[in-house]
Amino acid sequence: MTAGLERTWVAHYAEGVPTEIEPPDSSLVDLLTQAATAYGPRPALEFFGAETTYAELRAQVDRAAEGLRRLGVGAGDRVALVLPNCPQHIVAFYAVLRLGAVVVEHNPLYTATEMAHQLADHGATVAVVWDRVAPTVTGLPEAPQVVAVDLTAAMPWTKRAALRLPVRRARGLRAQLTAAAPGTVPWRELLEHGPLDPSVPGPGVDDLAAIQYTSGTTGRPKGAMLSHRNLVANAAQGRAWVPGLTPGHEVVYAVLPMFHAYGLTLCLTFAMSIGARLVLFPRFDVDLVLAAAKKHPPTFLPAVPPIYQRLAVAARERGIDLTATRFSISGAMPLPRETLELWEEVTGGLLVEGYGLTETSPVAIGNPIGLERRPGAVGVPFPSTDIRVVDPDDPTRDRPPGERGELLIRGPQVFGGYWNRPEETAASLLDGGWFRTGDIVTVDPDGFVSVVDRIKELIITGGFNVMPSEVEEAVRTVPGVTDAAVVGLPRPDGSEELVAVVTTEPGAEVDLEAVQARCRSQLAAYKVPRRVVVVDELPRSLLGKVLRRQVRDSLLEG
């Protein structure tokens, strides 16, 4: 195996960005402790106007850790988090880690079928769950012990009081945010036992910190194992990449879901590591974000292109000032030039594109923060990160500079493998620590990477990865459907539209409503096809496998 491409890209780093980083020899728990020591009285979290200081956050983590310990959680145990963005999410995340246990993040909008598979895979015996969706977990045949979180408890008392008004609108909003959760342990009870004994050992830097589920080319989602060292290193790389940050004074908006690897690193770990005020939104809502911006506008905003587009348009229409936003990082899907130009015109700040995967904690490549950035490219490798471009059919053979090939990545942020999947781990992690991304790229002479195709046939919609085979399983259960291929077609905003292409029984009539209804019963909303196309037959390989690429190309050709 070769050592990788020459690091020509370091000449294009922003001024002050090091070519190498020395990740702190500490865990994520140490990272929070250091932030609480340095920035104790400063606001760590803001939720609908309610603030939590770093000192208060640390104290809540210690109490929650003691509560979890009393539920039987210990070192190495997996604890499922099924929560939207809220203060309790951050407290639970660090409390689990404080015990040396492992966080497993889940989308709270998952169906029971999706949740059952992942819970069975990682074997958590305790789950911290938004009370609104607790029945999804408690109703499973082998449900873990559930701690139910009422989001409204973290709101200011004025908003809590307003939600209890005997009017229709208040009742509707309250029903969207909280619900009774019988058979669960209320979150508040975890905090009633006092702090964890300091003598209880914490995690080591090489211990497993999180299992993040990611989609693959076949089968069900698999859990990527991320160590404390992986996640601390990626937070350190992020700090190094933006030399204009002022620790203790930045305002980071958590509009990305923290159960996603992108939101986890840039909000749960990176923001904490710089002592930022993290403003939390349970879901992206233009009105909520712009209302918060009137009081504490973001200075650093990680998001996806559709969010930048909608915020910029609304801010301009309403005359809301976003010029405090100096740095913005876009990921998860291609960034249209029109969106970039509009955002920078409205804010006066920089918007740069980056690239990463769950398996790289997740950020591995980014455009430089400054004039060296190149719209259209995803950027250059982060400090202490190497890349190779290889023949997809033989990753031992490097492709000549400028030619297309599969991207391999090596660095301190690269994961340790897939949970309980030794064969898939061996196929993805090669000798020398190289991770096969499954993405086809080109690299120009300056080291800038452009993604041109994906080996993995994942579909990216709304910033989330959708595995076609998972959706196809659901579509095939629709009465009258004999087979299905699910593909993504490009949208103007850079995301993809899910299209189900189906064959049917003779005389059967299959419409969009039937397909969507069946899929909604088994899948999260973002995985539901938006269009259905009925064809006489699907193209297949000699082995009988449906050729999704040909299906997609046929649709694009009309």
TrEMBL record:
Q: Which PANTHER family match?
A: LONG-CHAIN-FATTY-ACID--COA LIGASE (PTHR43767), NONRIBOSOMAL PEPTIDE SYNTHASE PES1 (EUROFUNG)-RELATED (PTHR43767:SF1)
Q: Where is the AMP-dependent synthetase/ligase domain?
A: 33-419
User: Which residue range or ranges hold the AMP-binding enzyme C-terminal domain?
Assistant: 470-545
Highest taxon of source:
Bacteria
- Keywords associated with the record: Ligase
Report a single Gene Ontology molecular function.
ligase activity
Task: List, alphabetically, the PROSITE patterns matched.
Answer: AMP_BINDING
Pfam families, per the entry: AMP-binding, AMP-binding_C
What protein am I looking at?
Long-chain-fatty-acid--CoA ligase
